[in-house]
């Protein structure tokens, strides 16, 4: 075996490396110093079966032993710990935000500046600075259909037209708003008795009532049909 492929993990680094099994632990630590930022004398190296495994297979604690002495196999994991974090280790210098000098400004100063995101939004009327949209005034729908008038309802789907009388005209609590026309049919061709969802709009016998949009209602001289007129005399 000329080289061994291993994963190297430290607090802030992860990499895949190849090492000679003849490399001593001391030489290995020297190679890992620029990789992990942990000085070689401060390194504690443990061998693990996988990255998620907390079980230590062995500790590489003899600097004079070669890597191969520890029966290291391909794709195992070397975890490097810093035994002296307060030393000259460079670990943490890129993730420790406490080391970063911060620019601070008061809210009042920020609001007075003209080169900020806040100022940009103010100039371009964006976000909370956008003009308030006024809702369009509600236009009342004018329907010239008198209550009590005879009417004919055309469903518009090719089915037969129905005759009846107008019993209600106005807005309802169902159907998404707008004006509905309540019709009492001459025959039991409806869907209700003048009430929908517990709200009564007019009264009629069950299955004689229905609600339709004004566009489907034609008011005129539509006398009730005599259902006996086509029958033979008895």
TrEMBL record:
<dbReference type="Pfam" id="PF01302">
    <property type="entry name" value="CAP_GLY"/>
</dbReference>
<keyword id="KW-0143">Chaperone</keyword>
<dbReference type="GO" id="GO:0005829">
    <property type="term" value="C:cytosol"/>
</dbReference>
<dbReference type="Pfam" id="PF14560">
    <property type="entry name" value="Ubiquitin_2"/>
</dbReference>
<protein>
    <recommendedName>
        <fullName>CAP-Gly domain-containing protein</fullName>
    </recommendedName>
</protein>
<dbReference type="GO" id="GO:0035371">
    <property type="term" value="C:microtubule plus-end"/>
</dbReference>
<dbReference type="InterPro" id="IPR045172">
    <property type="entry name" value="TBCB_Ubl"/>
</dbReference>
<dbReference type="InterPro" id="IPR029071">
    <property type="entry name" value="Ubiquitin-like_domsf"/>
</dbReference>
<dbReference type="GO" id="GO:0043014">
    <property type="term" value="F:alpha-tubulin binding"/>
</dbReference>
<dbReference type="InterPro" id="IPR000938">
    <property type="entry name" value="CAP-Gly_domain"/>
</dbReference>
<keyword id="KW-0963">Cytoplasm</keyword>
<dbReference type="GO" id="GO:0031122">
    <property type="term" value="P:cytoplasmic microtubule organization"/>
</dbReference>
<dbReference type="GO" id="GO:0005938">
    <property type="term" value="C:cell cortex"/>
</dbReference>
<dbReference type="GO" id="GO:0007023">
    <property type="term" value="P:post-chaperonin tubulin folding pathway"/>
</dbReference>
<dbReference type="GO" id="GO:0005634">
    <property type="term" value="C:nucleus"/>
</dbReference>
<dbReference type="GO" id="GO:0051010">
    <property type="term" value="F:microtubule plus-end binding"/>
</dbReference>
<feature type="domain" description="CAP-Gly">
    <location>
        <begin position="178"/>
        <end position="213"/>
    </location>
</feature>
<dbReference type="GO" id="GO:0007021">
    <property type="term" value="P:tubulin complex assembly"/>
</dbReference>
<dbReference type="InterPro" id="IPR000626">
    <property type="entry name" value="Ubiquitin-like_dom"/>
</dbReference>
<dbReference type="InterPro" id="IPR036859">
    <property type="entry name" value="CAP-Gly_dom_sf"/>
</dbReference>
<comment type="similarity">
    <text>Belongs to the TBCB family.</text>
</comment>
């Amino acid at each position: 075996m000329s080289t061994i492929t291993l994963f190297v993990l430290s607090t802030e680094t992860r990499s895949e490396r190849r090492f000679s099994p003849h490399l001593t632990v001391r030489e290995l630590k020297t190679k890992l110093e620029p990789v992990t930022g942990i000085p070689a004398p401060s390194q504690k190296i443990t061998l693990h079966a996988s990255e998620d495994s907390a079980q230590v297979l062995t500790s590489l604690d003899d600097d004079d032993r070669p890597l191969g002495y520890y029966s290291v196999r391909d794709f195992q994991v070397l975890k490097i710990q810093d035994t002296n974090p307060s030393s000259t280790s460079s670990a943490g210098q890129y993730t420790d935000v406490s080391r970063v000098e911060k620019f601070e400004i008061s809210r009042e100063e920020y609001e007075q500046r003209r080169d900020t995101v806040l100022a940009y939004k103010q100039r371009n009327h964006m976000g909370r600075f956008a003009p308030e949209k006024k809702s369009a005034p509600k236009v009342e729908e004018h329907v010239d259909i008198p209550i009590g008038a005879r009417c004919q309802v055309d469903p518009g789907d090719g089915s037969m037209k129905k005759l009846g009388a107008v019993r209600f005209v106005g807005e309802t609590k169902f159907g998404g708003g707008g004006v509905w026309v309540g019709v009492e049919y001459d025959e039991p061709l409806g869907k209700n008795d003048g009430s929908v969802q517990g709200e009564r709009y007019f009264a009629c016998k069950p299955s004689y009532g229905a609600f339709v949009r004004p566009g489907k209602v034609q008011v005129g001289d539509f006398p009730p049909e005599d259902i006996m007129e086509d029958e033979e005399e008895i």
